[in-house]
Structures are given as structure tokens and as C-alpha cells.
Amino acid sequence: MPESGSDATTIVAGSLSAGNRAEVGPAGGGASDGQTIGPYRLIHQLGSGGMGQVWLAEQTAPVRRQVALKLIKAGLFDDSVLARFQSERQALAVMDHPAIAKAFEAGATPDGRPYLAMEYVPGQPITAYCDGQRLGIAERIELFIQVCEGVQHAHQKAIIHRDLKPGNILVVEVDGKPQPRIIDFGIARAAARSADETQFTQFGALIGTLGYMSPEQADPRIQDVDTRADVYSLGAILYELLTGRLPFDPRQWRGQPFDQVLRQLREDDPPPPSARLAFKREGSHEIAERRSFEPRQLARLLQGDLDCIALKALERDRARRYATPSELAADLERYLHSEPVIARPGSLMYRAQKYARRHRVAVAVASGLLLLLAGFTVLQAAQIRRVTQERDRANSERDRATRERDRATRISQFMIDMFRAPDPGIAQGKAVTAREILDRASKQIDSGLAGDPEVQADLMFTMGDVYQNLGLYPESQSLLERSLAIRRRLLGPDNPDTLESLNDLGETLEQNDSYQQAEQIFVQALDARRRVLGADSPKSLRSQDDLALSLQAQGQLQKSEELFRSTLDARRRVLGLDNESTLATMDELSDVLVAESHYAEAEKLLRESAEIRRRTQPEGDQAIDYRLGRLLMNEGHYADAEKLLREAVDLHMHSQGLDNPNTLAIMNTLGWDLLREGHFSEADPVARAVVDARRRTLGPESHDTVDSLNLLSAVLSGEGRQEESIQINREVYAISRRSQGPTAEATLVYMSNLALELGRAGRYAEGEELQREQLA
Asked: Which terminus of the chain is less hemmed in, N or C, by CB atoms within 10 Å?
């Protein structure tokens, strides 16, 4: 029963141990094979840590059994070591739980060295046992829940373990069933500190194991480490049981200064387990096989509830973590029983899915009856509608020709007036731009077509789309709202033209950062188009695609991914693989996969899309170059990404101009790539150009403008121009606080950026004040 058996590095009293495993070798420190200590005969050494040795020993009286004997090394029992050893003895003495290794007896050798006789656990670390037995995800979770119950028992006895890791959770089989045993309470401490504790846990000391250590344990300034530190360690173990990997890859820490490693533990968030598994290029098949799954199946299984549970246990802010191990265990029980978990926001659809999974038979019967009733209703409605249409068709045909002739005359006259040269006194010899013609037409449309509101609505719709393509969203929104109002009044809310105005209005709102309002409109348009045109209608699929985009913009990535996959399947079936709408959905799905860190699948989709475009439309692959460049940047291939992004910028600049939203988006991504390469002098003019253009075209408080300002502040910081960076960070923080609120996630991120820049500039008091406000 080794004192430390983890793959990560153990830290005690602020120092890194030399190796990753317990020392196993010749006996040392005065003890030897065959030596007798009290009623125990030493057989061989199991392991050695910084404080003592653990021996396999045989007890001869009053019962004969094998035990693990923990013995302080000779010459090491100073006050702090004795205090820690006494703490472990006391901790084990008060606990009695099947998942915790038992303590049998405490005593001392003739030369005064304390020893502790404990239950010998001839088991494997929990991760090794699960992999060796190829346990599935449900079996692993059931075993892990027993561990949570053991840790909860320790907490109820006011004991915090502080070094939970697979090497300290051994699994043995009892009557053919696996049972965990938690060992090594050598650095445990009372949840309520005693006055003497500072004798062996000094302020600034770090105790725990990298990879499983909570952020507060990695911060030497925090003294009030509580039971939630064990919850974080349990979250890391759960993460490893699910994915075969730690939340943070210890290989990345090789060669890094120790303070940078601790800073990452304190400040970075791990990726979701499904993403951690999905983007692993090596070993993913072996990891999935040990869990009796294919890699893609395992990634899908982890998405959703298990991602949310693991990340809640691993929250950097302990106030947002599970408060106790029993809460974590209860959520895992809910997952196993297909019940809604508290770690995941419970939408109506989510709860309905969980209910359906628990009551499959009843839901299937009820669904069948509803479908039968719905089919009968639709059949009757279609019959009535057909009779009505046949009656009205004869009357409408007589009037159509007259209406179309008069409408053509009015449209022709309006177009002539729109393009007629303005008063020379107004033009003053200057060339009249297309934008000026468009603006004049939008102002004259009410008076020029007052006699035909239907034509008015058509032209308002067309001009609204033109403004939208120019990135002039307020002008577009005004025209599309007026077009929608007229069409609703004249044609009805379910008319295809009315729904076209409704959907285009949603697109303008989305591009103008009004994501929630856009989402509501897309839901209305999708429901109506499915009802009127059918679920597989190209128009319905466009609304479904737009809804997925709005969910993506709001960070609802899983829902967005599901909708994009559904849209892509339908468009492949209805429109074909070479259709531009199908290819656009492939590109959009790849964007979501990149945001979820599913890089391999995203790259496969993008390359498939690019190949089809190069074959069918040689000039149509500009956006693909941009997306591939952004993907390579996210994967850390900055030089390759830079080449693609520069080519995409040149192409878009030539074809669409600097002020086009697509051009500016690509330039902004190029700026981030140059920043990550450390090419600050090259990133600086790119960032400034994007900021100036977006301020001019979108306004100073647009979401895109703020993102570009954030880029510029990071570039200035990299150039060592801290004061300029602080000034821009203040501007970004103020805009976000006004537009999104003081507690929005983006606002808190910008607040943190500002605090970090103040710290880099040596203005520690200001930075600390901001960080305290952020924590509050």
C-alpha cells in the first residue's frame, strides 16, 4: 500500500518531489526485512515517501493477518513530522467506512519512532483497475460513487484528505465485486483547524498532487482550504476515469517554471471531457476500447450531462462547485437513472427527454396515438382547403393579369425616379454613389408607392436585404420591420412572403448582436414554415440553419451542433451534397465543432467542403481558406494558419473591400494569430485597421468592435506598452458593463484582463481591488 502512486507529481510543504512514483527499493532508515516491531514482523517494503516508509508486515498476535505498517524514517521525527503522523493516526481513528482503509493499532519502536498498523489493501489504483477490467462508463461511475461516499464520511468526521488521486484509491474485489479503499491520510487535516496546525502546515506551503490539486491549494495566499478542495480532486479523478486523461496535461508542464504551472491551475479552465477526448490524435481508440466504446460513441456519450457534472466539480470558483462529495454522487446517480442533473440548466426539452428515456413504453404508446390523431386532423384540413382553393381559383385568375400590369407600371416609375439624377444644386458636381441612391429611395418609398402597399413591402424587403449585405444593420432593420408589418396586414402571418420578411429581420438582428431577439424570431419563422411548407422545405431548412447560428452566438454550442447536424442531413438529402446551402451548413457546423474543441472532425468537414467547392466553383473557396486558417490557429499551427489567413484577407479585400464584415472578421482572426506567434509589430497595424473600420461601420459599442479592441489591448501588452493597453482595457470593460451588465461572463473576463494589465504595470492595489470586485 504505497504512500503515493499517482502519475502526477506530489507536493508537500511547497516542494516538488523528485519522482512521480513512491520510492520502492532496498530497505532504509533502520528497518529491514524480517525485523520485528511489536507484534509485527516486517516482510518487505511497499513504498517510501517524504515522511516515512510503508511495509507489508505480518501480525502474529492476538490474530494472524497481514497489515500495512507505516513507520517514520529514522532521524526524521521532528515536531512537524510527528504532528503530521499524529494527525493521520487521529484521522483514521475516528473514521469507520467500507471505502476507507482501517487503522488497527498505533505504537512506537524501542527507539521511539511512531508506527501505525493499517489494513493492507492488495489492490490497484482505481484508474488502473477500471482500465484493466475494461469497465464501461456506468460501471466506473458506480464505483466512483462509493469513493464519494467514503470521502463524505471523512468530511462528516471533520477530516479533509487534501491528496485524493487514483494512487490513494485502491480497488480490491470482495466476493467478486470491486470495492474502493481510500488510503494515505498523511497530509489530511481537520476541517476546523486546531491551534497547533500551523506547526506542520505553514502559510505559503503547498500540499497535494499536481493534476488533482484544487486552485485554492495551488494558491499559497489562501489559508482556508476546506472540504471543497476534495470535491475538486474527485472531479479530476472522475475526469480521468471518463477520458483516460487529466483535466490539464502534465506533459505541458515539463520545463515550465513552477509558478507558471500553479498559475495555470489557478486561472485556466479545463476543456469538457468530450472535447478532451475528441481532439486527442493519439491513443483515443485505445482509451475508448478500454471503456468498451468506439471513440466517436464515447465522445457523444460524454457530451451533455457528464461534461456538465465533471466541469461543475472542477469549477475554479469553489462557491460554484458541488458543496459536498454527496452532492456530486447524487448528480451521478441522477445521470445513471436518466433524471435531470443539477449541473445542467434544465430546459423543458431537456426534462422531457429525460422523462421519455425513463418511460419509453408509455411515451411510445402516447406518441403513436397523438400521431394518429394529428394525421386525421391534417387529412380533414387538407380536404377543406382543397375545396376552398378550387372555388376561389376561378375568381382570382380574372383579376391577376390586371393587377400585375398595374404593379409593373408603378414599379417602373419608382425605379426611374430612384435613379434620376438629383438636383444639380444639391449634387454640387459630385458623383452620386449607390449608397446615396439607396438612401434616397428608402426615404421616398412611402410617398412614391403609397397606392400599392404590397409593392411597397416588396421593395422595402429588397432594400432591407441590400442594407444588410452592406453591414448597415439599423437601416436594414427599419425597412424589414415595415415590410413585415405590411405583409402581415395584407397577406396574413403564415403567408410565405410574410415569413420571408420575418426570417430576414431575424438575420439582421443577429448580425447586429441582438441574439436573443433573433432567436425568438427564428423560432417563430421555423415553426410557421414547417407548418406551411413542410420540414424539408429549403425555406424551413434556412430558418433552422439561422436558429442554429443564433444559438451558437449565445454560447449554446450543444444545441447549435444538434440543429446544424439535422440541417446538414436534410440538405444533403433534399438539395444534394454540391448545393451551396449544404456546403454552407458544413462550414457552419465546423465552426461550432471548433468552438467545442472538436478539431479533428471540424477539419475533416472543412476539407470535404473545400474539395467540393474547388471542383464545382473554382472561385468559391475563400471562406474555406479563412475557416481552415482559424482551425489551424486554434490547434497551435500558427505559421500555417497565417499563410491561409493572409490569402483570405487579400481575396476578400479585392472582391468585397475593407469595410465588408467578412473581410474585417478575417483580418481580426489574422491579428490574433500574429499575436499568438509573438509577431506584435505585425499584429499592431492589423488590429488598429480593424478597430477603425468597425467603429466606422458598426459603431463604437458593437460586439465586434469590442472584440477588436480587446485584440489591440493584448497586442499593446505584448509590445510592453502597458499604459496604452490599460487605457483600452478600461474602455472595453466599460462598454461591456454598460451593454451586457456587470455580472455577464464577458464583463468579468474583461475585468480580469484589466486587473492583469494593472498588475503587469506594477499597479497592484488597483488590480487587487478589481479582482476582489470580480470575486464578489
From this structure: C
Distance CA 220, CA 204 (A): 4
What residues are paired with 106 via a beta bridge?
Answer: 116
Cis peptide before 62 (omega within 30 of 0): yes
Q: How far is CA 267 from CA 215, 216, 290, 315, 368, in A?
A: 8, 10, 32, 11, 51
- For 654-675, the pLDDT digits (tens) are 767 777 788 888 889 898 889 8
Whole-Å CA distances, 248 to 82, 236, 245, 251, 267 = 34, 9, 8, 9, 12
Distance, in Å, from the CA atom of 337 to the CA atom of 614, rounded to the nearest integer, reads 49
Q: What is the mean pLDDT of residues 369-395?
A: 53
User: For 191-220, how does the pLDDT look when each residue is reduced to its tens digit (9 = 90+)?
Assistant: 544 433 333 344 345 677 888 988 888 887
Helix (H, G, I), strand (E, B) or coil at 336: helix
Residue type, 589: L
Quote the cell numbers at residue 659.
469595410
For position 368, what pLDDT does the model report? 47
Do 543 and 575 touch, CB atoms closer than 8 A? Answer: no
* Predicted pLDDT at 640: 85
Contact criterion met (CB below 8 Å) for 310 and 272: yes
Separation CA 211–CA 264 (nearest Å) = 11
Amino acid at 173: E
At 348 the three-state DSSP class reads: helix
Which of 186 and 338 is assigned the larger pLDDT? Answer: 338
Helix, strand, coil: what percent of the chain each, to 5? Answer: 60, 10, 30
Report the alpha-carbon distance of residue 168 to residue 165 in Å, rounded.
5
Q: Is pLDDT above 80 for 754?
A: yes
Go through 679-708 and write b for each residue having 16 or more CB atoms within 10 A of its CB, e for each that does not. bbeebbebbebbbebbeebbeeebbbbbbb
Residue-level pLDDT at 393: 60
Res 594: pLDDT: 84
Distance of alpha carbon 68 from its chain centroid, rounded?
44
Residue 6's nearest CA partner among 25, 26, 21 is: 21
Q: Could you tell me if 717 and 685 are in contact, meaning their C-beta atoms sit under 8 angstroms apart?
A: no
Round to whole Å and give the CA distance between 104 and 108: 14
Please report how the helices 580-595 and 599-616 are oriented relative to each other, as an axis angle in degrees rounded to 10.
Answer: 160
520 pLDDT higher than 80: yes
Residue 160 or 391, more confident:
160
pLDDT, tens only, 598-635: 888 888 888 888 788 777 765 544 556 677 787 788 77
| 517 neighbors 509 (Cβ within 8 angstroms) | yes
Distance CA 661, CA 568 (A): 25
Write the burial class of residue 654 (CB in 10 Å: 0-12 exposed, 13-18 middle, 19+ buried): exposed
Q: Is the confidence at residue 553, as pLDDT, over 80?
A: yes
The three cell numbers of residue 580 are 451551396
Are the beta carbons of 3 and 186 closer than 8 angstroms? yes
- Give the Cα separation of 512 and 96 in Å (integer): 61
What single string gives the DSSP state of each residue in 580-600? HHHHHHHHHHHHHHHHTT-HH
**DSSP string over 66-129:** EEEEEEEPTT---HHHHHHHHHHHHHHHH---TTBPPEEEEEE-TTS-EEEEEE----EEHHHH
Distance from C-alpha of 639 to C-alpha of 682, rounded to nearest angstrom: 13
Rounded CA-CA distance 352/152 in Å is 32
C-alpha to C-alpha distance for 345 and 467, rounded to whole angstroms: 38
User: Helix, strand, or coil here: 190?
Assistant: strand
Tell me the one-letter amino acid at 468. Answer: Q
Counting DSSP H helices and E strands in the chain, the numbers are 30, 14
Give the 3-state secondary structure of residue 45: strand
Q: What is the pLDDT of residue 392?
A: 59
- Alpha-carbon distance values, 452 to 147, 335, 403 (Å): 75, 60, 10
For the whole model, what pTM was predicted?
0.46
- Rounded to an integer, the average pLDDT of 96-120 is 86
CA-only gyration radius of the chain, Å = 33
